[in-house]
Design brief:
Protein name: Winged helix-turn-helix transcriptional regulator
Distance between the termini: 20 Å
Pfam families: HTH_5 (PF01022)
CATH superfamily: Winged helix-like DNA-binding domain superfamily/Winged helix DNA-binding domain
InterPro entries: ArsR-like_HTH, HTH_ArsR_DNA-bd_dom, HTH_MetalResp_TranReg, SdpR-like_repress, WH-like_DNA-bd_sf, WH_DNA-bd_sf
Order of helices and strands: HHEHHEEH
Keywords: DNA-binding, Transcription, Transcription regulation
Radius of gyration: 13 Å
Number of strands: 3
CATH architecture: Orthogonal Bundle
Length: about 80
């Protein structure tokens, strides 16, 4: 769970999650939305993947990234248990 909170603790990564909420995207499409280097975007994507917040699938010459809503549902359920 620590990797999940670490991943969510960065504004750029939260913005990437917001983008992927709308549709699946490749790294180039994601990078076009930011004013930072492509290697920095790749680093953020790697952190999100290690936290299981996103998944990736090779499609032709591109890797397409998708939001993994299951991990977010698990997080929300855990947070709700703290309420009692």
């Amino acid at each position: 769970m620590n990797s999940l909170f670490k991943a969510l603790n960065d504004e750029t990564r939260r913005k990437i999650i917001e983008l992927l909420k709308e549709r699946d995207m490749n790294a180039g499409e994601i990078s076009d939305q930011f004013n930072i280097s492509k290697p920095s975007i790749s680093h953020h994507l790697d952190i999100l993947k290690r936290a299981d917040l996103i998944t990736s699938e090779k499609k032709g010459q591109f890797v397409e990234y998708s939001l993994n809503t299951t991990i977010l549902e698990d997080l929300l359920n855990w947070i709700l248990t703290l309420k009692n």
